[in-house]
Amino acid sequence: xxxxxxxxxxxxxxxxxxxxxxxxxxxxxxxFSKKEIKTSVFLGPIYPTIxxxxxxxxxxxxxxxxxxxxMLDNLHLKYGIWNNINYELKKYPKLKNKxxxxxxxxxxxxxxxxxxxxxxxxxxxxxxxxxx
Length: 132
Known about the structure:
Layout: E1 2-4, H1 9-15, H2 22-34, E2 40-43, H3 52-64, E3 69-72, H4 81-89, H5 93-106, H6 109-124, E4 127-130
Parallel strand pairs: 1-2, 2-3, 3-4
């Protein structure tokens, strides 16, 4: 299982600076697929900046890599997590505003993402589950 929360590697560098790049993660899925090793993706925490096109693009990567299951998760703000995220995002006001709006005002991202993924995955025989 590979964890992916965004397709935007610049955002990943801000919030997950010591983690593997998105390209490296996709390469792992593709490599395992070629060796016929069953893979799954933990799509989470979904970054609040993701849009429908990003979700569809990610799904295309997953389908191409023969992913068998996608587990979807939301951004959980346990004690201290938002403080850390907020601290990092101070340097990026547009990104901070998007995170704040989606996480605390709109709160529709996870439902929207789930519907898009569910609809497309159904036709690709990919199992969908949630961690929330």
